[in-house]
Write the structure tokens for this entry.
Amino acid sequence: MTSPKYRGFSRLVSCLQSRLLTLHRKKGEQITKGMASSQMSRDEALECTCCRHACHVLLYSETASQLFGRIPIRYIVLMQMRFDGLLGFPGGFVNPLEETLEEGLTRELLEELGVAVPVSKEDHVESCFSPPRSGTYSSSSRLILHFYVKKMEEEQIREIEKAAASTAADHGLEVLGMVRVPLYTTKSGGGLSCFLSHSFIGVARSQLMNSLLRLHLVSPGDLQEALRGSQRTHAESAQNLQAALKLTGEQP
Ligand code: AMP
Ligand code: MN
């Protein structure tokens, strides 16, 4: 059973996605049949042969470890600091004419994590159009994103983290480092709240939040509180950045 709060978040995300699809329609983009929102099934997405396709995955495990010996970490959720300074999920472009989506994703994971994590159709969560950059629609914005979630053992996650920083071909290049998502909130308000206030690629923040709710890794109430904290952090950051501009000699 999904809770009313989770349905509320989902509706908000779907609403944004429907708006995106409407804009695609206005531009005469090819729409696959039966799509009520920009969400589409894996098979429908593959019918769009003129679209580019990218696959990304959220890898996670349970953990019994505790921060400072008292704050339960509960789950390890992996994301990465990308070459562009944004947070995102491991994965990348795949070519469905040459490989299945899952084969392509596994190939990308080998490059980025140094481990060929096998991902299957059963791990697929959703496919949708990528939001366009800077609000403009061009043929390059016809990118379909396929999102997967895979649960692993803690030991496997630790091996991935080691390989990602040592043998992975993309380490220090396309991937600046793997990061864990803090799901807790500290007394001073740090943790998930601060993490969510960073900058994410495309819809990665929504993909993360939807997954946390869907997998019951965070309650809707805790997520809501964390997001309120993120908004406060953003306001403080804006002020800090304004002050920092003075360091560059810029006059207020
Ligand atoms: P990558 O090779 O991992 O950078 O991903 C392939 C394409 O997908 C690039 O154009 C990225 O900007 C885009 N991308 C990656 N992750 C996301 C995401 N979570 N939401 C939207 N676009 C993404
Ligand atoms: Mn990538």
